[in-house]
UniProtKB/TrEMBL annotation:
Protein name: Glucans biosynthesis protein C
InterPro entries reported for this sequence: Acyl_transf_3_dom (IPR002656), Glucan_succinyl_AcylTrfase (IPR050623)
A Pfam family that the UniProt record links to this protein: Acyl_transf_3
Entry keyword annotation includes Transit peptide: no
GO function term, MF aspect, one: acyltransferase activity, transferring groups other than amino-acyl groups
Stretches that traverse the bilayer: 21-42, 54-79, 100-121, 141-162, 182-203, 223-243, 255-274, 294-317, 329-347, 353-374
Keywords: Membrane, Transmembrane, Transmembrane helix
Residue intervals of the Acyltransferase domain: 13-374
Keyword flag Membrane: yes
Amino acid sequence: MSTLETDRSERLHGLDALRGGALLLGVVLHAALAFFPTPVWLVTDPATSPVAGVLFFAIHVFRMATFFVIAGLFAHLLLQRRGVAGFVKDRLLRIAGPLLAFWWLVLGCIVAVIVWNAWIQTGGNLPSEAPPGPKFTPDDFPLTHLWFLWVLLLFYVAFLALRLPLVRYDHTGTWARAGDRLAGALAGPLGPFVLAVPLALALYRTPKWIAFFGVPTPDQALIPNPAALTAFGVAFGFGILLARRRDLLVRIAAGWPLYLGLALAVTAGALVLAGGPGPRLVPLTAPGPKAAAAAVYALAVYASSFAALALALRFAAGYSALRRYLADASYWVYIVHLPLVMAGQVLVQGLAWPWWLKLAAVVVGTMAIALASYEGLIRHSFMGLWLNGRRVARRGPAPAPVPPPLVTGQ
């Protein structure tokens, strides 16, 4: 029997590991930006390679859609376990709380690194006038890489609002059964194609869409752009449907060769239609090429998400202490990683190293500092309970063996 077919209360180790991996890949993705042949990032390095662009593209195409599928699934399971009041309390504590607590600190550190890099690039002189900053209005708000927490909160509100009429009026379970049938239809070979349709339309309708960057990141406004709202909303909704039909996870896991082959093929096609690994940072305007690129990229998003889900469910379904540790640490690592990545990029700028060695140094250095701070400050403190829902006690030295009682004669 598959481990997925056991007790429904069992922890989904494969999906937990995949969720953590999606967050940790953000370190690699942001580190690679400095080594693009065309400057696209706040810190640019003289050592560049188109391979850095391919690495970014491959990660970016599936990472956040996969994360939101798992987020939707786990949200439904949490609601079932704790009820509406418990769900709202948990999400406010573990999602809204960290966003409010760390956003301004992260933003301040990012600005400090930008100023430091400008000071280095100008030989110790800063411009007399700073460039215009954000207006902190709903349409101009620097959410930074923590945008996913804000979008999660929006999806939770929508989830509860859409669920309310089902609870009140679906007394016969007709709508619920329809949702279960829809989940069964989507959790098959045609699923990625069907899910891709709304996103393809949203990308095609996106003004000045740069195909290489795929789904525009909603990090500069409190109102997510339509393409991001569509891409991640569809993924989140699919995750909710899967939570009601966990038996379908076995079907997805069994289809991993098909999903992996499809993902590799359409992701390669999306890269070609986007202009190759250069990258080409020119918006697509011609209707034909734009429609083709939007359709193939949208399919790549969900095909690669299905592939990631299938591989995790098939090959990481069992318990692993290392995967569990990294999954627990991934939330904290992602929160703090961006200023660390940028600082590392600044530090390696002047080194005469090849780009791949610089990239490795930035990633390893960032992970080392972030994991050390997690182990020393977060995991065993109240913050571990805050971020991960549990606090792990520190292991002390093993107790000394107790000698057997001395038996004396009577």
